[in-house]
Amino acid sequence: MNSTVKEVLEWVYCIIIALVLAMLFRYFIGTPTVVQMSSMYPTLVEDQRLWLNRWGRTTKTLPERGEIITFEEPAKLEYSESEIDLSNPVAYYEDRNAWEWFVKNFLEIGKRSYIKRVIALPGEHVQIKDGKVYINDEELDEPYLQDGIVTDVSGVMGAPFDDFIVPENCVFAMGDNRNHSTDCRSFGCIPLEKIESTVAIRIWPLNKWGKVE
Questions:
Q1: N or C: lower Cβ tally within 10 Å for the chain?
Q2: At the top level of CATH, which class does the domain 33-211 belong to?
Q3: Domain coordinates in residue numbering, the chain
Q4: pLDDT tens, 41-79?
Q5: 94 Cβ contact partners less than 8 Å away, ≥ 6 residues apart
Q6: Whole-model pTM?
Q7: What DSSP designation does 13 have?
Q8: What is the pLDDT of residue 102?
Q9: How far is CA 34 from CA 22, 45, 68, 185, 208, in A?
Q10: Percent of the chain whose predicted confidence (pLDDT) is above 90
């Protein structure tokens, strides 16, 4: 093997190793992302850049109430009255073989994710009524909402999840822009294994840099 071929192969190996390390870091530690929708307005605005912390997925740790998370889009986004099961209000995800999981979750090819705020935790009784959210019969204080915003299910696709107990290892999440957010009111609670990350900081624009509340 001449020196030129050897040098090219060494560069190829280095590039492959660098790509693998980058993908591992993105999956297990963190990654940047761009806000693409308005469902979290005014907290997050389209085209803002965020840094996502994925360590919680690695350690299988549930996020806390109030944290903003990203999660995989459920396979089913709406339910009819006959389909909805408030005794088991968990979002439906299709099973995948190992290769499909690798392509969609590790390589993130053809994957769609949502960004929402955690509202309720396992074992908590959630009720959406009178334009407000109640957790264990107490009204939830939501200072991050715009003045005049109400939380209801009148615009929810299909039959809503509006009175239930959050199952174990799941969270209930909604967008801050309640009237323009497809969220757990439509498809149910998100299992821990489908939560991808929590929003760590906003990195752009620079005048908004810092922790997202």
A1: N
A2: mainly beta
A3: 33-211
A4: 999 999 999 999 999 999 999 999 999 999 999 999 999
A5: 75
A6: 0.92
A7: H
A8: 86
A9: 18, 10, 14, 24, 14
A10: 78
